[in-house]
Write a structure and sequence with these properties.
By secondary structure, the protein is an alpha+beta fold. It contains 5 helices and 4 strands, in the order ααβαββαβα. It has one domain: Trna Endonuclease, Chain: A, domain 1 (3-Layer(aba) Sandwich), CATH 3.40.1350. It is globular.
Length: 156
Amino acid sequence: MTFNKHDPFNQFRSGKTAKVVTKQELAEQMARKESSHQLEFCKWIKREYPEIRFRSDMQAGQKRSGYMQNLVDILDPFSGWPDVSIWVARSPYCGLMIEMKRENSGAILKDGSLSKGKHVQNQHQVHEFLRGLGWKVEIAEGCEEAKKILQEYLNM
């Protein structure tokens, strides 16, 4: 590429070429995203258990303008809610809520305890509140773990 100082678009050209990403690399990038696990899990519920009513909250991971963030703060002032709510009662629970994490997220430490991170601790407080209301609340690292949690819950 030759540089032409009279070309008004030169300021927008980096001179670098985009990296070509293979399908496998793209799949690996998506597997690292929490939202892709959540989407896969919800598709699986719809396919395997069409009678189950559930709600999935994808808004937490979105980038927002200041205006939109203000609206969300008014309409949904409490953070830390689990990502997926499954509206099926199994004694003694009124339903199941699953907090989705990407695989090896670091939220659950090797000894089984929770990370001391502010976000994880905030979620833990909300989970304890929901448990007090009769919900079963679990954390799933990846779609496969979420499937296992739901299947065990349904077999109670």
